[in-house]
Amino acid sequence: MEKNNQSDNILVRIATSNDVHYADTIVNEMESSAKARGTGIAKRSPEYVATKMLEGKAVIAVTKTGTWVGFCYIEEWGHGEFVANSGLIVSPEFRKTGIAKRIKGETFALSRKKYPAAKIFGLTTGLAVMKINSDLGYEPVTYSELTNDEEFWAGCKSCVNYDILMSKDRKNCMCTAMLFDPKDHYEPEETKAYFRKKSNVFERLFRLKKYKFLKNFRKKMH
After folding, report:
1. Contact 90, 83 (CB under 8 A)
2. For 102-126, what is each residue's pLDDT tens digit?
3. Cα 16 to the chain's mean position, in Å?
4. SS3 for the chain, per residue?
5. Which residues contact 11 (CB under 8 A, 6 or more apart)?
6. What are the pLDDT digits (tens) for 69-103?
7. Alpha-carbon radius of gyration of the chain
8. pTM of the full structure
9. What residues contact residue 78 under an 8 Å CB cut-off, 6+ apart?
10. How many degrees, rounded to 5, is the angle at CA 43 between CA 170 and CA 155?
């Protein structure tokens, strides 16, 4: 099937209780995708993913015939001061169709509706996700501008890079932090243009960070 036709055949919507049966598939794909990329993620259980669906805090993409395509969910931190759009995942069969951008856009809109005053943030090791975030108005920030909610950082314990995070006193890690502040932000066209201008710099930064952090961390282990 042509990728354009695939995209036309896909529904992106708020997940409901009728989607709970996809939870195992979603969690398994999150884990296998992270392993394939050689990066870490904070692991989530099928029960956790299902809860997000039941709370109306998740966005799912499915084909018109019911095949699972992609997923993302909302997490609230610091008593609603911060919100994260987490766990963005697309089935390998449907990647590079623009679906990830549609899912993230829908999740962002849902976050703004449910938490209009909250700062929306994300951590990513991928340039593609960074581009999507930039298109929505997110800006690269330091870790100090993120939530200090201990429960959020505890979620990183299951990530393979957690020891690196702690060795940096939670000030830096393999991920790049991005933030949308509803009270103080650039317009999406501005952040989009900035990313386009600096994309090569960000790509080199990802590579350098991976090389430098892993090299220094391995030295400490020996």
Report:
1. no
2. 999 999 999 999 999 999 999 887 7
3. 20
4. CCHHHHHHCEEEEECCHHHHHHHHHHHHHHHHHHHHHCCCCCCCCHHHHHHHHHCCCEEEEEECCCCEEEEEEEEEECCCCEEEEEEEEECHHHCCCCHHHHHHHHHHHHHHHHCCCCEEEEEECCHHHHHHHHHHCCEEECHHHCCCCHHHHHHHHHCCCHHHHHHCCCCCCCCEEEEECCCCCCCHHHHHHHHHHHHHHHHHHHHHHHHHHHHHHHHHHC
5. 61, 62, 63, 64
6. 999 999 999 999 999 998 899 999 999 899 999 99
7. 17
8. 0.78
9. 147, 148, 149
10. 35
Distance, in Å, from the CA atom of 83 to the CA atom of 149, rounded to the nearest integer, reads: 11
CA within 13 Å, CB half, 121: 24
Instruction: Find the distance separating the first CA and the last CA of the chain, reported in whole Å.
Output: 51
Q: How far apart are CA 107 and CA 27, in angstroms?
A: 18
Q: Tokens in use for 73?
A: 């969910």
CA distance 160 to 213: 13
Any idea what the Cα angle at residue 109 is, between residues 107 and 113, rounded to 5°? 115
Q: What domains lie within the chain, and their CATH numbers?
A: 3-221 (3.40.630.30)
**What residues form DSSP beta bridges with 179?**
121, 139
In single-letter form, the type of residue at position 219 comes to: K
User: Residue 184: left (phi > 0), alpha (psi -120 to 50), or beta?
Assistant: beta
